[in-house]
Write a structure and sequence with these properties.
This protein has 295 residues and is mainly alpha-helical. The chain folds into two domains: 2-48, no CATH class; 68-286, Urease accessory protein UreF, CATH 1.10.4190. The chain has 13 helices and three strands. The protein has helices at residues 61-65, 69-81, 97-103, 109-122, 124-141, 144-156, 161-181, 187-194, 200-210, 215-237, 242-251, 253-265, 276-284, and strands spanning 2-8, 27-35, 40-48. It has a three-stranded antiparallel beta sheet, with no helix packed on it. Helix 4 (109-122) packs parallel to helix 5, helix 5 (124-141) packs antiparallel against helix 6 and helix 5 (124-141) crosses helix 12. The radius of gyration is 31 Å and the shape is globular.
Amino acid sequence: MRRAMRMRPTPRMDMIMPGTIMAIIPMTTMVITIITTSIAITITIITITPMLMTTSEPVPADAQSGMTADEAAALYRLMTWLSPSFPVGAFSYSSGIEWAVEAGDIADAASLRDWLAAMLTEGSGFCDAVFLAQVHRAASAGDDVGLREIAELAAAFVPSRERQLETTTQGRAFIDIARSAWACEGLDKMVAGCGSVIVYPVAVGLVSAAHAMPVAPTMHAFLHALVSNWISAGARLVPLGQTDSQRILAALEVDVVSTARRALESSLDDLGSATFRADLASLRHETQYTRLFRS
């Protein structure tokens, strides 16, 4: 009888039972083969050795996420400030959508989507985005004269009394709450430089600039919040289900991105609105007999 012994560095894969989940760990396999003239018997003995751990330093959390600590903090604040749960009272306003539903201009998901797309790209959505970008740049540059001029123009650009109430109430609430929860040096000076009336997009531009947040992500978060609130109002008024609401939000994604890009590239000379029906809706809502919303 001849005996042969050899060492194999890897495990026998045919020994793994189907349906068994095994961790990949270093192991040593000893195979003892006994050979006779007529019978070959193979006995496999598997011994598992502990995994060797590396001694390298752990990867910092910010490197794993691809963001610096400041970028992560900025994202956290934007998600908080422009969340539907941030208490600026946005749920109380419809921006004239309530009258549009009563008049029959909005009757289903498709007509709501078309109405909101027009408001976003050619109406108040675009104008508010331009004001946000201009205020952010003026505040970041320390241009006090320009900051006041932009704030006053933004307040004068609102077409109706109810829309004025809507945007100024939300602007004041946004600044008060952000200032109370996230103290920021320099914000009070910026607010004082704008005068007594601060509309919502100006407030967002001020606070984000004071916290040194980039204007582009702030712009996209603002427009997403604006569209989401419009959809929420329309869903309650038409009414629509949650799935239809999400479909409208998804359909407006391209419009949000393109409007943000246009606004970032525009100056105050590019301001303008072509949504006359939406402006009339906000005016007629003031005398609407039955109302759920304040605008």
